[in-house]
Amino acid sequence: MEHSPIENIKKTLKSIREKMSTFDAYFSKGLELYEKKEYTLAIKAFKLALEQSNAQNYANYNLALAYQQINDADNAKKCYELFLKEFPNDQSSLYNIALIHFDYKEYDDACKYFHESFEIKPDKLTVKAITQSYIYAQKTDELYKFIDKIFSDLKYDKILAYDIAKEIEEVAPKVKNRALLDKSFEIYLKLFEIFPHNFAILITISLEYSKKGDWDNAILYCQKALVEEPNSFNANNQMGLIYYCCEDYKRSITYYEKAFKINSKTEPKIYSNLAYAYEKTGRYEDALKLLKDLIIKFPNYPEKDVIKKQARKYTEKLKKH
Predict the structure, then answer these.
(1) Coil, strand, or helix at residue 282?
(2) Does the domain formed by 209-261 have CATH 2.10.260.10?
(3) What is d(CA 287, CA 296) in angstroms, rounded to the nearest whole number?
(4) How far is CA 318 from the centre of its chain?
(5) Distance (Å) of CA 252 to CA 35, 130, 219, 240, 245
(6) In this structure, is the dihedral angle defined by the CA atoms of residues 32, 34, 38 and 41, taken in order, positive or negative?
(7) What gap in Å lies between CA 114 and CA 54, rounded to an integer?
(8) What global pTM score does this model have?
(9) I need a surface site. Which of 1, 126, 144, 249 has the fewest CB within 10 A?
């Protein structure tokens, strides 16, 4: 007996609903398993979802994430590529596939995807990743063009250049590229012109001049930093260090003591810094007390053996007096 046209339509709609519910069921199960961190089972569920006749490409994104959780980068990359064919502007996928290329040391591809991700979401994380990719690919010219673009293009927050400079300082020594470090210093100075009252930039420039032994400029920029944040531990400690290196121990002690008052609870280095400054002015008893406090309050201090040796030295000095 033949079915009527209406019955045929109902049958077709029922078949479609069944297929849709099958995909939805597998996909939902995959999400549930992923949340439970049962990644291998989640992968099976997502793959079954994608095998349905009405499979939706967005499941490839979730499948890629699950593959990444079990460190299967090859399959994760393939799934991201499939997903990006339909959703080319998905920032998370662009960033994640860039990370995979980076891990494979495929730096050109990493840069490509990081750049696409950055255009959608120009944030610190991505700008650091782009910087690393260019450095490891030994493409400094492209990196410098990218830096120029950050400074010149109005749509970018110029402070992102600070993160580039910081990343250069982190990575450049690993590739033994001194010229890159000069570039980071150039970036800081350029940022100072734009943000003359930015504390982080001021203290960073002071530190950079300290590394160069240019104490006059180190003091100048640290003073500017202290104007912005007079109660900064880092700025007072930095000024104490500068004057210590300049052999102006009285001024060094003044700043170190202020830094100590600001934060001696979580900064063990200030104990030894101030102790060494006290030593230079003959205050061995005060110096010894600081080192003893350091050992007691920070028992896991990595330089504990050095501190103990120095404390014994002060003890001998005091005995002689």
Answers:
(1) coil
(2) no
(3) 15
(4) 46
(5) 55, 40, 12, 4, 9
(6) positive
(7) 32
(8) 0.83
(9) 1
Quick count: other Cβ atoms within 10 Å of Cβ 273?
22
CA 121 to chain centre: 16
pLDDT at 32: 93
Q: With the C-alpha atoms ordered 130, 136, 137, 140, is the resulting torsion angle positive or negative?
A: positive
Taking the chain (321 residues) in runs of 10, the rounded mean pLDDT of each run is 56 49 87 94 94 90 96 96 95 96 95 95 95 95 96 95 96 91 96 98 98 97 98 98 98 98 96 96 94 94 92 87 67
* Contact (Cβ atoms closer than 8 angstroms) between residue 143 and residue 132: no
> For the chain, where do the domains classified as CATH 1.25.40.10 start and end?
209-261
